[in-house]
# Entry
Amino acid sequence: MALPPKILTEASVFKPTNLMREARRQKSLPDGNIPALCILDPDGDLRAYVVDRLQASRCPFWACYHTDLYTFNYRGLSFGIIGQAVGASFAVLLAEQLFVSGCELLLSITSAGVIQPPAGGERLILIDEALRDEGTSYHYLPADQPARLRPDLYDRLSAAFAQTTLSIGRGRSWTTDAPYRETQSAIDAASQLGVTCVEMESAALYAFAESQGHTVVCFAHLTNTMAQTGDDFEKGEANGSREALELLYLTAGAICK
# Structure
């Protein structure tokens, strides 16, 4: 038996502000804002890197039942970061809570499987649009509306990336809820639609951002061929963390200047 279609313009009864209020009360946490710049790191490698190398520490103001938010400074900017934020529904749950806690710009960088290698050989991809093969985005945007990066953000980032030595491409992603159901026919269909990579968060994050009026930018780190070859899932030096950190710093500067 199916539920009737959701009225997307109707307000939710369960609000992230209320959950955070109750978590703060139960955990006896102090009031305060988290950093305005926040990162979702599904792999957890970047979070581990900033804890080890940049002395990132747990934020005392993050009232979440499921995660820890670490804060750190990099080249004069203060960031918050959450690791292991895997999957569309979990990423958006955290995004909802981050934006009511002081976040103003949310950056996501996730490992992704290659569908069509970029012509320039880039391994870092700015996701400009994501195919919606998951469930969460449909609670925020109509089914016929694309989940994509805001055009004004794309213009700012394109200008900034043109001035850097980082190798950054752009491309369409396929966001799936079920990575172990990436069948050959589904891969072929995505390839025909011009998809660069497959991952698990960006369509939902972009739908959330469009619906709620928030600023979200999603990146893919092309790390694998879905284990179809040997030596897969390698991210490079320091698990790609140095390069990822510089990318996120450049992005924050371009958007917040």
The first strand starts at residue 37 and ends at 41.
